[in-house]
Amino acid sequence: MTFDAPSRTESPPEDAVKPHGESNQPIDPKASENQTHTVESVPTDQATPPAAPADEVIGVRTGMFGVSGTGDTSGYGRLVRTVALPGGTPPPYGGYFDDLVADLHAALGVRFRDAIEKIVVFRGELTLHVHREHLLAVAKTLRDNAALRFELCLGVSGAHYPEDKDRELHAVYHLNSITHNRRLRVEVAAPDSDPHIPSLYAVYPTTDWHERETYDFFGILFDGHPSLTRIAMPDDWRGHPQRKDYPLGGIPVEYKGARIPPPDERRAYS
């Protein structure tokens, strides 16, 4: 048994295309002749949607896991994926983001252009990319200005982008304004050859252990930290395990030879 499928040129039943809110009563031809149909013009700025921010392409990754120099036994060796970071977002940003940026601009004045590298709105979050030499000034302004009042730093995390030339290491701070119930991300980049970023311990003491952990796993040196030491890996561990260029395994085992001193000989953390 076969069924003839309707062609794409056939029109569906009238009830299916009936505009929402109209009845099934027949239309008076004389009434339709007296009706005048007008088409409202759409403003040019509304007809064309704003262009999406261009992503920053920093590299191309091939294969399933980005591993090269070995025989492909996975079957995914011909996969090609672009490695990109979100590009700068043009205003307006939406929500309270516009007021936040305007208040920061007013507080920093002429320093705003030199301090802020770019502003990104991505997945519902506002991120200020700050040049590392201006990080302390921006953090103090975000904390102390009455219109901003980001009193709490929720944590510091690291990221490693080997393809992002001269900006391979990133530190990300999550700030919270208890006064205004707002969230903000602050991101700072540093090159592998000079992995120094100012410590925010003096501004936000809660970054104490977070900066130590980021140093331990990513190798970022937070200048001005009172005691920048490893907190997870042994003191004599070579390398930083969360970096993308860190070996995934094999021998020699770097933990071999590490010495854990007795409690009365261990270093103080304060």
Automatic annotation (TrEMBL):
NDH-1 is composed of 14 different subunits. Subunits NuoB, C, D, E, F, and G constitute the peripheral sector of the complex. Residues 128-250 form the NADH:ubiquinone oxidoreductase 30kDa subunit domain. SUPFAM superfamilies: Nqo5-like. The gene is nuoC. Pfam families: Complex1_30kDa (PF00329). It is an enzyme of class 7 (translocase). It comes from the Bacteria. GO terms for molecular function: NADH dehydrogenase (quinone) (non-electrogenic) activity; NADH dehydrogenase (ubiquinone) activity; quinone binding. This is NADH-quinone oxidoreductase subunit C.
